[in-house]
Amino acid sequence: MKGRKKLMRWLAVLGMLVPLSLLQGCWDIRDIDNRMLVAVLGIAREDDQGVKIWVRFPLPHSPLGIGNGDKDFLTASQRGDTASDALDKLRARMPKYLDLSQTRGIFVDRGLAEEKGVYDCLDFVVRDRMLPINAILALIEGDMGQLFQRPNPSGELSGVYTRLFFENYAGGTPQKNKVALWEVFSRHYNPLQQSLVPLLVKDESFQFNLKGNAFFGNDKMVGWLTPEETLIYELVADRMSPFEIETAGGANVKVEASRAQIRTGWASGKPDIRIRIRVTMKLMDSSHASPMSTRTIEEEVNKLLEERAVRVFAKTQAKGSDVFGFGNRYRSSLTAGQYKEWADLYKRASITLKVESNMRNVGLKLLRD
Fold first, then answer.
1. Burial of 21 (0-12, 13-18, 19+ CB in 10 A)
2. pLDDT band at residue 265, thresholds of 50, 70 and 90?
3. Are 39 and 150 part of one and the same domain?
4. Per-residue pLDDT tens for 50-103?
5. Residue 252: helix, strand or coil by DSSP?
6. Does residue 19 fall inside a structural domain?
7. Is this structure's pTM higher than 0.90?
8. Cα–Cα nearest to 194, from 326, 105, 310
9. Which of 170, 84, 89 has its CA nearest to residue 130?
């Protein structure tokens, strides 16, 4: 009898807790109904020295068919003196609360990045913390309005497409160099390293295409690397992921892993940087017309990457943009007052890079060799 009463008591307590959990969910739903979640934010330059922002909201599908036609998103734009001013004006027009806490991607116009820099148009983010720090940042070359008004060709929701474009588990490749908002701001406050940000252009079939990766100096865009040249950055920074296929001497190889060893010092008052990269590859295809030995393919890949590295270092050193973070390795040998001089020191630095390739899993070619 006592056991039965105890069981009934616990059932009564459980019966009171279940409705409370349902009420909590109802409150959250009503709160979401009063917000419009920004999936993607764009900031472009205006001719009158102001800026124009673009926002894209995902729209829920109504069972009654009421909404924005066949579109699953809503696009809005607003001009202002600054990005923060434009957002304030946009809030005054909206019937619901403008919520930036779920923003997946931030696009900045290339012209704005070259003229004013990224920090000047996004400094309000640091103060107000209205945007998630893991949002992806990219530069846009061309008309940003067309990009925001065009539906996603593969059907993803607004913001999800941008994320998938860069993620390694989806469409990400080493050339795309995914950069989060927090990384850009951390390097803005670090004079010993500059940012490398993806540069996108409109694509005929898909939403956008990768043109290259822009590098910065004093927060402004000063140049860009091609997708092929970006591979050198990935190798040196130890951010390399598989799926990169290099063609050398008629053979296709897949870089599966890499490891960089960097030694720094001083020579004749200039930074002396020596890099040794070990690359593990897999043979994907080779030319049957002119067959090559495994060793020859390895030498061709070494030569290809080393020559490309010379061009990359020449580009970045000419602008004093150390995107590799070599300056961080000299932090202990420089005074705090010399940190701002690192850009000039990087221009005069001596940088050498050697690649050692190791071909694995060559299949039947190993037997022929």
1. exposed
2. very high
3. yes
4. 899 999 988 776 554 555 556 778 899 999 998 989 999 999 999 988 999 889
5. strand
6. no
7. no
8. 326
9. 84
Domain boundary among the residues 193, 225, 257 is at 225
Burial 179-203 (b: 16+ CB within 10 A, else e): bbbebbbebbebbbbbbbbbbbebe
Q: How far apart are CA 247 and CA 356, in angstroms?
A: 16
Alpha carbons 166 and 163: distance in angstroms, whole number: 6
Domain range for residue 133? 34-225
In angstroms, the CA 148 to CA 140 distance is 11
Can you give 93-115 as a three-state secondary structure string?
Answer: HCCCEEECCCCCEEEEEHHHHHH
Confidence of residue 221 (pLDDT cuts 50, 70, 90): very high
- Let me know: does 323 contact 193? Beta carbons within 8 Å: yes
209, 225, 241 - which closes a domain: 225
How far is CA 209 from its chain centroid?
A: 13
Tell whether 209 and 261 lie within a shared domain. Answer: no
CA 214 to chain centre: 11
pLDDT tens-place string over residues 13-31: 677 766 666 555 544 444 6
